[in-house]
Amino acid sequence: MDQLTRRRFLIASGVVGGAALAAGATALTLNEILATSGDRPTGAKTLVVITLYGGNDGLNTVIPYADPAYGSARAELAYDAADVLKLDDTTGLNPGMKGLRDLFGRQKLAIVRGVGYPKPNRSHFRSMDIWQTANPDRPTTTGWLGRWLDTAGGDPRLAVSFEKVLPPLLAGEKSAGAVVGVADAKLPKGMNAKLLGDFGTPVAGEKPLQARAAECFADLVRVQELVAEVKEAAADEDDTGEADAPKATGTGGLAGLQAQLDLVAQCLEANVATRAFSVSLGGFDTHADERQLQQTLLGYLDRGVTAFLQRISSTPAGKDVVVLIYSEFGRRVKANASDGTDHGTASNVLILGDSIKGGIYGEQPSLTDLDDGDLKFSTDFRDVYASALARVLGADPGQSLGGWKGTLPWWV
Fold first, then answer.
1. Confidence of residue 350 (pLDDT cuts 50, 70, 90)
2. To the nearest 10°, the Cα dihedral for 59, 63, 68, 71?
3. Contact 402, 135 (CB under 8 A)
4. Residue 356: what are its φ and ψ, rounded to 5°?
5. Which residues pair with 93 in a beta bridge?
6. Measured in Å, how far apart are the chain's first and last C-alpha atoms?
7. Given pLDDT bands bounded at 50, 70 and 90, which one contains residue 215?
8. Judging by DSSP bridges, how do beta strands 92-93 and 109-116 pair with one another?
9. Which of 23, 299, 334, 346 could share a disulfide with 96, CB 3.0–4.6 Å?
10. Cα angle, residue 245 at apex, residues 321 and 10 outer, rounded to 5°
11. pTM of the predicted model, to two decimals?
C-alpha cells in the first residue's frame, strides 16, 4: 500500500496525529499490554478507577430517605422510601443499583459519604482537575496516580486508560500511563475487510513510526471488534426495556463503560503487569429532568460493574481488584425549577472488591446546615486516595499526595 496514502488515512481516522508522527511519539497497543502477562508480582493488587463525568447527584445515588429534609428540598425529584433499595433504617441506594445493593449485603461495597475538599469549586473542569491531581490549593500538571507511577519505575504499562485520551489522573512528572483507545476511528465509507487489513499490515521500507502507527491501527480495529461483541452481548442480555444511554456531555465513556471494563477484565485474565486502570462514564450533568436520566445512567454503571466483578471473580487476580468510583462534585440539595439539580459540592465515593470491608463510612452531611445551599464535606478525598495508594498499590501516600497521611478503615 502506498505509504503516503497510509499516512493520510492514519491521521484522518484519528488514530494518530501528524505532529505525533513527526515528533516521534509512540502509542501502546492492547497487544503490548497483554504481552506483559506473567510479569505481575505475586499478590499484587489492582486499582480500577471509574470516573463519572458531569457531577453525579450523590443525594439521589446514596439516598438519606428517612431525613424529612430530603423530601422537602426535592419534591418530585425525591424518591419515596418504598422505592429506595434500603441499606439500613436511614439510607438506601437508587432503584437502578440492584447489583450494588446485593454487593453491599455481601460486604463487598463500601460507601464513603460526604467526600469533598476545602473551598470547593463548582466548575466541571476545575473540580475534575482538583480530583484528578489531588491538589485543591493550586493548579498542577500531574495526577495522583501519575505521581505514583513516577515512584514505581515509570513503565507506562503499569497504569492504563481505556478512554479516548490520557486523563490527567495518569500524568506524572517524569512518566505517564498508557492509553489504549476504544473508540473514534472515523472509517471512510466503502471500507472493506481487505483494505482494513492492508492498513494494519507492515510495508517494506516504510519509516518505523509509520509502521508503529499502522500497528496501532490494526490493534484499534481489533479492540473495536471486541467492543462490538460486548455491545451485542449486552443487547441480548438486557431485558429491562430501558432507553438507550444518552450521549455523554463533554467527556467520558465514549465507548461505553461495559466495553471498557470488558477490556480491563481481559487484561486481568491474562495476568498483565498493569496495577491501575482508568475508565469512565459521562452524562451526569443533570440540570433538567434528572430522575429518569440519572437512574438510567446508574443502571448502566450497576450492570457494568457487577458484570465485571462477577467475571473476574473466577480469576486468580479477581480477589485482589479494588474498584473506586467518584465524580467531580455532587449536586445542590434543593431541586431546581426544571426537575433537575445544579452544580454542588460534597458527594459519595464507592469502593468495591473482595479485599475491602463493606459498609457505610463517613458522616452524612446535614441537609439543613448548608454552605450557601450546598453540603459541607465531612471526609477529605485525599483520605480515600491515601487508602488506595497504601492498601492497593502498596505505596507511600505521602509521596503522591504532597505529604498527606490520612486514611480510611474500609479494609479487611
1. very high
2. 60
3. yes
4. -115, 160
5. 62, 85
6. 57
7. low
8. unpaired
9. 299
10. 80
11. 0.81
